[in-house]
Amino acid sequence: MSSDAPASAPATRTASCACGSLSVACAGEPALVALCHCLECQKRTGGPFGVAAFYPEAAVATAGATTTYRRTGDSGEDITFHFCPTCGSSVFWYPMIKPGMVAIAVGAFADPAFPAPAKQVYTGHRHAWVDLEIGSAPEPTPP
After folding, report:
1. Residue 106: what are its φ and ψ, rounded to 5°?
2. Which pTM was predicted?
3. Do residues 19 and 87 touch, judged by C-beta distance below 8 A?
4. Among 10, 18, 82, 133, which residue carries the largest CB count within 10 Å?
5. What is the pLDDT along the chain (143 residues), one digit of tens a residue?
């Protein structure tokens, strides 16, 4: 017996800033979830690491005003961060080293069931008290 029912659309997850003025709707599952121990992510998050979910740009729709901050990453490529001009939450960014992808701060989804990171990077900057077993073997910190 065949079914002519249409395939269900991929689930949409929504991330937002603390005040709710800036949101990002992401269709489907992330292409990658990664935890970063670099010093810049520590500064950006105010915590010992950052966690990003990477989605194709075509799967992402943003709503609300943003303020941007651009910096050059260790790769030599620029990263443009978008944050809420009202509450200051860093919600998403465009890493030029990953063309066509948008990184979304996993904490902005406020979803304990969000997929776990598959990898961690910049482990040379990991705080000694952070003990995480994540996906593949940790990648070393570039010189």
Report:
1. -60, -35
2. 0.84
3. yes
4. 82
5. 444 545 555 689 999 999 999 999 999 999 999 999 888 888 899 999 999 999 999 999 999 999 999 999 888 889 999 999 999 999 999 999 999 999 999 999 999 999 999 998 888 888 888 887 766 555 566 66
Contact between 93 and 108 under an 8 Å Cβ cutoff? The reply is: no
Q: In what order do the strands lie in the sheet with 60-63?
A: 12-16, 23-27, 60-63
**Element containing residue 27 per DSSP (H, E):** strand 23-27
Taking CA atoms, 64 is separated from 6, 32, 67, 115, 127, in Å, by: 32, 25, 10, 25, 35
